[in-house]
Amino acid sequence: MTLQVGSRLGPYEILSRLGSGGMGEVWKARDTRLGREVAIKILPEDLASDGGRLKRFEREARAVSALSHPNIVTVYEIERLGSTPVIVMELVVGETLRDLLEDGALAIRKILQIAPQIADGLARAHSAGIVHRDLKPENVMVTKDGLVKILDFGLAKLAHPEQDSGRAPVRSTISAATTPGIAMGTVSYMSPEQALGHAVDYRSDQFSFGSVLYELAAGRQAFHRGSVPQTLTAIIEEEPEAIGTLAPRTPPPLRWIIERCLAKEPKGRYASTEDLAGDLAKLRDRVSELSSSAGVAIEEPTRRPRWRLVGALAALLAVVGASYWTGRRVQLASASNPRFRQLTFRGAGIGTARFAPDGQTIVFSTQTEGKPPELLAMRLDGPEARPLGLPSAQILSISSAGQMALLLAPPHNLGPRAGHMVFEQVVVRDMAALGGMLATAPVGGGAPREILDDVLFADWDSDGKELAVVHRAGNRNLVEFPIGTPVFDEEQATLNCVRVARRNGELAFKDWDDLFLKPQGRTATAILRHDGAIEIAWSARTNEIWYTVGPGGIDPGETEIRAISPNGRKRLVATLPGDYILYDIADDGRVLLGRLAESSEVLGTFPREPRERDLSYFDQSGVAGLSADGETLLLGEGFTARGQSYIRQANGSAPKSLNQDCDALSSDGKLLLCNAVSSSPIIDSFYLGPTGPGPVHKFEPGHVTAGVVDSNMARLSPDAKRMILCAAEPNRRRRIWVQEIEGKPRAITPEDVRRPVVVGDGSLVCAKANDDAWYLYDVDAKAEPRKVVGIQPGEEPIQSSPEGLLYVRGADELRPGETLMTTRVYRLDPATGRRELWKEIPPKDPRTGGAISTIFFSADGKTCVWTHIRYSTELVLVEGLK
């Protein structure tokens, strides 16, 4: 039967064609009787006359209609419309696992959301004596809310009902119901017994499921070979490459489950699919409940890579994996009995989140890659989050009267590390880019009322009448409480986060990772110094400031929640496996956390190569340098390699470890600029050494390093004979310095100049002055500074060509007609302002949070490499922490 969009089939109006397969065509339709959209499967006319095929079609319908499970597509009706047999089914809107695999392996967190649901659906079918026999990524859908639906039981057969549930055998896959001699099912996901044409039962589905899990974790099929016979032989005789080799971050319990499913002999698999589903549910729940060993001693924070947003779900799962089989739970510093509940499942980047006064509503801002932040609200007694109609807004605080303090249209999401790491990110390229318009609006809805521009953070007082703010005034960051009354103003302060105690109005705020307390009527004093504090929140029950110290500050797989009282008494509240963010604490003591999964990768485009290439190495790859010929890269690595740097050739050869963290690569790709590892902004010295064996030269900036040094702003001149540095002497503001290998540092700019870019042959440096304009400074002071022409607000030079042209990164914005923000780089003549669009880098994955970080070009501009960051955050509600 031929259908067309807009035609009618009985009571169903045909809307669009969804697809087709061996068992028929599928159309999207509208049931005009009930006013709902459905999916209709129709046996094509050329097969409707085939009695055997027709019986199989109707058998599929009866089998599936007998099932009732949230993870199996629901069948509404089985009927004949005229002479056409149809199945009317639930319309599932989402993506197949094949769609999700387009960009490679899935995050472990995502796998553990999906896998238990598939296993639950299979277990339900197996208990009814039904075997799917064609489980593959194309037959599993995931909705936008994370619900899994198994599709197309088109190859299923009813097992003998008189035998034990879940154990009934099915006749050979080679039967008259198929083309003679051809086994049913998709070859790459067949079980060995299917490939041999033997009888199959529920354990065949377990093998196919194991093949799907393998692909989700490893990013490639377990048995696919160059031809069908070779693939069948591999399924029957060969073992797949170890997942631990292809995906070392996969936790051992998940590897063991997959290996058991892929046992060649059915008896080596699970005795029942319920047991398989149970093991996956336990692993998922161990992650949700944070079961792990703990008790790690508090250590001083270590230096973190500058290109990343911090977070490693792999480290979380490695810890959970170790504890999964021992049954040990998260250890706390008090007699807490915490209960953990995950609230969101969308995998986007959540920037900020707050409790509403009713304690049952949570307002949070979320951002997917390439899109502005959006404000949502959710009730704890329901699963759905609703938009508040205030796009490009972030929640900062909610008063006792239900008034929200919002940051309108911030150019960047405050990020998973709103209180700390956002200031380290190359993604957020300048402190000035962080500020936005402070506004207030009722939680229940209403237009926002603008209060103050250039605000970074804000919090209501206990009465909900006054706001404490971190306010950017010129190039200074002030704490004001109330607005207009500065209570903290220090040179070179990098203020990030301010919170007001509900009990007595005391003020807590952070300058870098130092924590300050300002009691009413007294001056602010530091109660924590370099303790690694990240997010902070007041606990009304204990009158303490709770704060987190994340991976990098302690063991790389753990986050500590610590507390400090106004009198300075510190204690450990809990040690959690993985990377967690402290968002808020309700008056009754419930804690709102975010669980962060983050990774970064290095991608590049090369001449005569049609597609971009992945040059990553471990889980936190970032590019820190590129040689002029585009052949040698300097990579930095995160958690897996503990902040080490690597040299990698663009030809794909194995990276070489440098056993240290380096800042810059020389133009010829043979020399490296590195600094002494430190837990503070104070750098003792820099080293210039070869990528291979050879002598090391030491830069000793001397008195400059007694102040503050932006080590990620250290640069080399093209001839590698000079170091350009952004630093500040004690009690002075930052400026640009130049230093020869055998000389002393000398300032080449006034104070309050930052973000240097070496221009041309190295005789000029482009940097940003205190008027927010960019200037060219002569390294040898032979000429007066010249203002760069043509750089627009929000743009930033990132590199220079040998001829002195600037590569300028455009401001992040949505252009008319666009739904996703694309990073654009222009090539600019600094003297005339003439510019041309040089490179466009679109979002890598619009479904998750992420951003483009560092970008490097070869001398001819034809090779480009960049760091792509992806992150996601899920809200977690914790009760019982004390």
Summarize the SSE layout with pairings.
Blueprint: E1 8-9, E2 12-21, E3 24-31, E4 36-42, H1 45-48, H2 51-65, E5 75-81, E6 84-90, E7 94-96, H3 97-100, H4 108-127, E8 130-131, E9 140-143, E10 148-150, E11 157-158, H5 192-195, H6 202-218, H7 228-237, H8 243-246, H9 252-261, H10 273-289, H11 313-324, E12 339-342, E13 349-355, E14 361-367, E15 374-379, E16 385-387, E17 393-398, E18 403-408, E19 436-442, E20 449-460, E21 467-473, E22 476-480, E23 486-488, E24 495-500, E25 507-511, E26 514-518, E27 525-528, E28 536-539, E29 544-549, E30 558-564, E31 570-577, E32 579-585, E33 591-605, E34 613-614, E35 622-626, E36 632-636, E37 645-649, E38 656-657, E39 662-665, E40 671-675, E41 686-690, E42 697-699, E43 708-709, E44 715-716, E45 722-728, E46 735-740, E47 746-747, E48 754-759, E49 764-768, E50 774-778, E51 786-787, E52 796-800, E53 806-809, E54 823-828, E55 835-841, E56 849-857, E57 864-879
Antiparallel strand pairs: 1-2, 2-3, 3-4, 4-6, 5-6, 7-9, 8-11, 9-10, 12-57, 13-14, 14-15, 15-16, 17-18, 18-19, 19-20, 20-21, 21-22, 22-23, 24-25, 25-26, 26-27, 28-29, 29-30, 30-31, 32-33, 33-34, 33-57, 35-36, 36-37, 37-38, 39-40, 40-41, 41-42, 43-45, 44-45, 45-46, 46-47, 48-49, 49-50, 50-51, ...
Helix pairs in contact: 4-6, 4-10, 6-9, 10-11
